[in-house]
Specification:
single chain, about 475 residues, alpha/beta, nine-stranded mixed beta sheet
């Protein structure tokens, strides 16, 4: 095979896969695309050829199973335009069944291999394609008399195509009866597709002569074909920025955190349900928007109508700032969105729209999207990326304990957080000796500056957040008053 520089790449036709491959395929090499039925192999191959046709390159699809009409219909259903792609169907015609062809002297392999090989050679020499797909190459196994001959035959075939200046994708459907380990050794790269339950994944396990992004990456089949969401690598992204102090818009709250939270840092707002976490979040988000810096809030729990109603009840101008496109609120359904897809959405807001603040409300909703995996790894990568890009992050973490002391965060987020604000209900007695439920705010961590270490009362009013005096008397239990 011709040796090509890894710096010269051909797009796969799938943006996310190009990122995983380090820019695309190295030309004039052969790559195995493996996976079970319905995993997306043919779709990926069609998009690979489409990218070539769009670039003025001659492209050929050699099918040993599906007919050209079937391939065209399937491509149309996926929104893939196949104009400019030449199809060569080498599977048996319908007459094979009706005429019951038999061979008395020679084996079927010996009779069929010659005409099939001749058709391929003739088509390649005539078209001289830059890109070739063979779907599926495992069908050639039945044209060989033994495994050794099959390997020699496939290797010779791939070399013929590469020496013809073609870049080749060949698909395989392995089974216990017909494993494809031999095909894996022959290829310059391996892309494995899997469809498990309601999740699809893509994994590159081999890419000869080049580095690639390892691990499983999620993908979806859409009306535009296959979309791949490469796992986020934070250290690949970085901007220069200054650690400005960002005001919350509430002077008394800013006084507790030395003037505000720093740009490019992570703040966790922790507390039980209904204590005021989201109200505080929207106070910071609207303050960012009022400065002319786009803030994006991802709501995993509440619907937009409820958010707007609550903010209007506390004089937080969410609706006005959304109309000015300085504040965006995206409702996220964690059972539909994968973590990789969500990270790509966040990246677009940051890199294309210029978002300067990102809010996750709440982390419990995000955790659902991981579905059994260690979500802390994903949230670490996401927050590290945002911090590297100078984006301020606010995370809402709901705790289970209603009153009293508990963990700073329920979601193991303490080490990620530069600032932690703990919101709690407190039991206290009023001047008449009656038991009341109040709210308290405690800044328990501020990595980059000093902070007010007193526990202070706060309330959510028609005018917004109000920070009150220090708490001097509250109940530890129903039988003990702490002075």
């Amino acid at each position: 095979m011709t040796s090509k520089s890894p710096d010269l790449r051909l797009s796969s036709g799938v943006e996310g896969l190009d990122q995983i491959l380090g820019g695309g395929f190295i030309p004039e090499r052969a790559y195995l695309v493996k996976g079970g039925p319905g995993s997306g192999k043919t779709t990926l191959c069609l998009q690979f050829l489409r990218a070539g046709a769009d670039n003025g390159e001659k492209s050929m699809f050699i099918s040993l199973s599906e007919t050209e009409d079937q391939l065209r219909d399937n491509a149309a259903a996926m929104g893939i335009n196949v104009s400019g792609i030449e199809f060569l169907h080498l599977g048996p015609a319908s007459t094979f069944f009706t005429e019951v062809e038999t061979y008395d002297i020679f084996s079927p392999a010996e009779v069929e291999r010659g005409p099939i090989t001749g058709q391929i050679v003739s088509a390649v020499e005539r078209l001289q394609p830059r890109r070739v797909v063979i779907d599926t190459i495992t069908q050639m196994r039945y044209l060989a008399s033994d495994p050794a001959q099959y390997r020699r035959q496939v290797l010779s075939f791939l070399r013929f195509l590469s020496e013809s200046a073609s870049t080749v994708l060949y698909t395989s459907e392995a089974s216990s009866e017909a494993p494809d380990e031999d095909l894996q050794y022959l290829g310059d790269g391996i892309i494995e597709l899997k469809a498990l339950n309601d999740r699809r994944t893509l994994c590159v396990t081999k890419l000869r002569g080049s580095d690639f992004r390892p691990g499983k990456h999620t993908l979806k089949m859409t009306g535009r074909g296959m979309e791949v969401y490469a796992r986020l690598v934070p250290d690949e992204h970085r901007r220069n920025f200054s650690l400005d102090r960002l005001s919350s818009g509430v002077d008394s709250l800013d006084a507790m955190i030395a003037g505000g939270i720093e740009r490019g840092t992570v703040t966790t707002i922790s507390g039980p349900s209904g204590v005021g976490k989201s109200t505080m979040v929207y106070q910071f988000a609207t303050a960012s928007a009022e400065r002319g810096e786009l803030a994006v809030v991802y709501s995993f729990d509440e619907e937009l109508s409820l958010i707007l109603a609550r903010c209007e009840g506390t004089s937080i101008p969410v609706r006005r700032l959304m109309e000015q496109d300085l504040l965006r609120i995206e409702k996220v359904e964690p059972l539909i969105l994968t973590p990789d897809e969500f990270a790509m959405n966040v990246r677009r807001q940051v890199e294309e729209s210029g978002a300067r603040m990102v809010v996750l409300d709440s982390i419990s909703g995000y955790r659902i999207s991981i579905r059994g995996g260690d979500y802390i790894i994903r949230i670490h990568a996401l927050t590290k990326y945002l911090s590297n890009m100078g984006v301020t992050v606010i995370i809402v973490d709901e705790t289970n304990r209603l009153t009293g002391a508990s963990y700073a965060t329920e979601g193991r987020l303490s080490y990620l957080s530069d600032t932690i604000m703990l919101l709690r209900y407190i039991e206290e007695r009023n001047g008449e000796g009656h038991l009341e439920m109040g709210r308290a705010l405690w800044i328990i961590k501020k990595r980059l500056s000093e902070m007010d270490r007193l526990i202070r009362k706060f309330s959510v009013t028609r005018s917004g957040l109000e920070i009150g005096p220090p708490v001097t008397r509250f109940l530890r239990s129903r039988h003990e008053m702490i002075p």
